[in-house]
Write a structure and sequence with these properties.
This protein is an alpha/beta fold. The chain is built from twelve helices and eleven strands. The structure holds S-adenosylmethionine.
Length: 291
């Protein structure tokens, strides 16, 4: 937390008038922050103080350090940095992962993928998460299947670094490898994987311009964009997947809501079936290697 001895200053984003709020309650502080939704301000205040909203709303004396941290968080959010990067932690299924500009913020849809994967194969022994990012899927699956050997790959060394940190912090053993999709996996896994999961990049280059600014300007482009069409990474996964799955092994990937029929075709040799998410959008492809 920020240094409590720091003196009020007129430099930078901190206004001296803010310091008048030092011993007032959080509701007053909330009213002093225009242009951000209340629920975001509350979360930023919780993150800056490490206190739950229910205790803040009762009216506590915030330290100077907490107020300084809070205002710096507000400024970052006003500059469109994703809320979760500022908070630094995202809950995901049974775990939580640290996130920052090195990785995509895990989305609720991907938690649905985790829920599907959890029941797709009985007691999987070898699980691979392609395009792991923060490691959210791989680590959540290791938590769920402690006896399984879990491999995760990512083409970004930044993501690999953070996924390893997240696995270590969760105290869970996940082997995170740097490289393109299946390439870094040990060859002996060929034909032996029980479950493959992936939330790969699936946007077309042209879609980038229309994304909300906090996504477009802050999350890694390599996490979002697959190529001119958007299905390029999934096409490679579909092609190589059958080599790596054991007979009867299952593959589940997140897809663009606009690519359902095309992706079902690409996964046809695995009996690719499209499943909708909770919003009714075609969001997942599920396939299985022939027995
Ligand atoms: C949409 S993000 C998903 C991250 C994480 N699995 C999640 O669900 O939040 C896609 C990730 O795939 C990685 N990636 C992109 N192309 C890749 C490739 N060819 N091989 C491996 N990883 C790739 C990116 O670096 C990024 O971390």
């Amino acid at each position: 937390m920020a240094n409590d001895n720091r003196q009020p200053t007129t430099d930078g984003p901190i206004r001296t008038t803010d310091y008048g709020l030092r011993t007032t309650n959080s509701a007053d502080l909330l009213r002093s922050i225009p242009a951000l939704p209340d629920h975001e301000v509350r979360r930023l205040l919780e993150a800056a103080t490490g206190r739950h909203w229910t205790s803040l709303i009762l009216g506590v004396d915030l330290t100077t350090g907490e107020i300084v941290a809070f205002h710096s968080f507000v400024e970052r959010r006003r500059a469109d940095e994703p809320l979760q990067y500022i908070e630094g932690i995202v809950p995901f299924g049974p775990i939580e992962v640290a996130v920052d500009q090195r990785v995509l913020v895990p989305r609720p849809e991907t938690e649905e993928l985790y829920e599907i994967a959890k029941v797709a194969v009985e007691s999987p022994l070898v699980i691979v998460d392609l395009c792991t990012g923060s490691g959210n899927l791989a680590i959540a699956l290791k938590h769920t299947f402690p006896a399984a050997t879990i491999y995760a790959t990512d083409i970004s060394s930044d993501a690999v670094e953070l996924a390893r940190e997240n696995a270590r912090d969760a105290g869970l053993d996940v082997t995170v490898l740097l490289g393109d999709l299946f390439d870094p996996l040990p060859d002996h896994l060929r034909g032996r994987i029980d479950l493959i999961v992936s939330n790969p990049p699936y946007l077309a280059v042209a879609e980038l311009a229309d994304l909300p600014v906090d996504v477009r300007d802050h999350e890694p482009t390599t996490a979002l964009v697959a190529g001119p069409i958007g299905d390029e990474v999934l096409a490679t996964i579909a092609e190589a997947g059958s080599d790596w799955l054991r007979p009867g092994g299952v593959i589940i990937c997140e897809i663009s809501e606009f690519h359902g029929p095309a992706i079902a075709d690409r996964f046809a040799s695995l009996g690719g079936e499209i499943k909708r998410d909770l919003f009714g959008k075609e969001r997942f492809v599920i396939g299985a290697a022939p027995q």
